[in-house]
Amino acid sequence: MSDTADPRLLRAPPKKGIRLSWTDERLRGIVWQLLVVGLVGGIIWWLVSNTAHNLEVRRIATGWGFLNREAGLPIGESLIDYNPTNTYSRALLVGVLNTLKVAVVGIILATILGTLIGIARLSKNWLLSRLAATYIEVIRDLPLLLQLLFWYVILQGLPAPRQSLNPMTGVFLSNRGLKLPWVQWQDAHSFALLGLVAGIVATFLYARSARAKRMTDGQPRKVWPVGLGLILGLPLLIWAALGAPWQGDIPALRGFNFQGGLTVTPEYFALLLGLVTYTAGFIAEIVRAGIQSVPQGQWEAAEALGLQRGRIMRQIVLPQALRVIIPPMTSQYLNLTKNSSLAVAIGYQDIVSISNTTLNQTGQAIEGIAIIMAVYLCISLSISLFMNWYNARIALVER
Amino acid sequence: MSATMDTAAHLSSAARTDGPPAILMDKVNKWYGALHVLRDINLSVAQGERVVVCGPSGSGKSTMIRCINRLEQHQEGRIVVDNIELTDDLRSLDAIRREVGMVFQSFNLFPHLTILENCTLAPIWVRRMPKKEAEALAMEYLTRVKIPEQANKYPGQLSGGQQQRVAIARALCMKPKIMLFDEPTSALDPEMIKEVLDTMVMLADTGMTMICVTHEMGFARQVADRVVFMDRGEIVESGVPEQLFNDPKTERLKTFLSQILRGH
């Protein structure tokens, strides 16, 4: 800490030897450490040798050869091309992607819903804050599995495709899921999508330069008209320049079920709904606690300076609240991801469901469980790493 | 109401009585639930006048000055600040908060911003001042409160007295016409009280309109044009410091003064 160069302060600490006596603190510490290492090592050795012995006695093959065999297991929904003649490795990849599909969308929606409910909980509007409080209590106090089954049963209770609800042209809601109109995807659409991403990045850059310009001349600039133009205009322009292809893919009833269109299966929908509503209850409390952790005096001082409420929120309260919010938020994201394994209860084919089937068919339980563990470990570590990076990025310097 | 009405006679040379009052409170009442915390407050502060408000804790001093920039809302009566009446209209609120600076008992500096950023935040975002200009202004006021060398530190690195002086500089950067002080020295260690009071005396010498809730009787004697004594939500007595302290008219003020003096 101190930058003083006084040599007396730089003196090294005295060296201490170990006495060979049970009353020596350091000797005792080393003995305990050795005991713990020995114990843990012994348990691991026992588990491994016991398992190897049992596998041998029961003549169960080990190894990863099964991954290249034909899976022969049907999967209801997949983000990539898949049919039962594909290999186990491809089936497992479908499972991983299905898990990611529900986890990523779930984390985004739960964050939005949870933040809104957390803010509603703090509202001065009595009805709104009571409603939010009731929601939080009910959702947090019921087991997630029960809630997932609840949503699944509700979705199963919807009418059959022939009698499906048809709130808008091309939109059908039945016990086979939600059918939405879509377009037949072409390259022009992919480029338009790239345009959208470019528009968002450009808006971000524009907002930054507007802020920088404001710092030099003090004049505020409206960002939203330019942003709207960039985000909507750019993809539309690209799409039009490439000939504006538009071939609708409208779902239509054929026989007992729908053909075409975009499908949200009841299993996915129930799982997503359950995970999002459940996790949002916890996120709401985290957001509330974070905002309340900023002393009232900070609001008052900023208000007394004439700052607007939105500006106070952005520049005074949120920066201080986020450092309280981010660490527990990471836990909730991890929880949501791991809770998605309850998919197996309502028949959504995530990595757990597909690994289970795989290990039932091949008998290779150890490999199956190892795959599940490895997948969740990878996803969880990625979330943790990202959130830790974000936390470090927004960390406040206070001294 | 036994309050002695103010006359122009004991106003400081800085105070101008000819123009409209800087602050006018007319029969102001406020309740917290059923608790009547401000009772028929009548107070007129001339431009450039320095008023010290004292009274036992819970007497409504803080509530009264917090009503002036509407950190608290009064429920009855009229408050006019700098010719703008305080209403629910957000524009009048913004206008008033730009003209009224406030210093709090617990400093309330923004801990995640440097001293300089604390001072430039409002000029940039409220006064629409270019950053360079706001920084030059901030350095000017930080120099005036004698801590320019701390500009790039964070509030947590400063002593209480230094933090409170930054809070004063931060408020001054908005170039307010009126300054409110809510017990600015109550949270300070004794050896730091003087540096903050000195800063306030210096500010008083510039002719700033000031209302200051404080128990620092020395400060009141030195700079106040008028002392207002409050008890149980009402103004009990008011007058020039000498008269009020040496010749209290009411039993309540006598009791209060004896308690204060015993403490010193």
Question: Would you mind describing this structure in some detail?
Answer:
The complex is a heterodimer of chains A (399) and B (264). In chain A, strand 1 (165-168) and strand 2 (171-174) form a beta hairpin. Chain A has two domains: 88-177 and 263-394, MetI-like (MetI-like fold), CATH 1.10.3720.10; 185-246. In chain A, the strands form three sheets. Chain A has a four-stranded antiparallel beta sheet. A two-stranded antiparallel sheet of chain A has the order 4-5. A two-stranded antiparallel ribbon of chain A has the order 6-7. Chain A is built from eleven helices and eight strands. In chain A, helix 3 (126-141) packs across helix 7 (266-292) and helix 7 packs across helix 9 (309-339). Helices cover 64% and strands 6% of the residues of chain A. Chain A has 399 residues and is an alpha+beta fold. With 264 residues, chain B is α/β, with parallel strands linked by helices. Chain B has a single domain (23-262), classed as P-loop containing nucleotide triphosphate hydrolases (Rossmann fold). Helix content of chain B is 37%, strand content 23%. Chain B has nine helices and ten strands. In chain B, the strands form two sheets. In chain B, strands 6-7-8-3-9-10 form a six-stranded mixed beta sheet, sandwiched between helices. Chain B has a four-stranded antiparallel beta sheet with strand order 2-1-4-5, with helices on one face. The longest helix of chain B has 16 residues, at 190-205. In chain B, 50% of the residues are buried. Chain B: Residues 23-257 form the ABC transporter domain.
List the keywords.
heterodimer; A: 399 residues; alpha+beta; MetI-like fold; 2 domains; four-stranded antiparallel β-sheet; two-stranded antiparallel ribbon; 11 helices; 8 strands; 64% helix; 6% strand; B: 264 residues; alpha/beta; Rossmann fold; six-stranded mixed β-sheet; 10 strands; 37% helix; globular
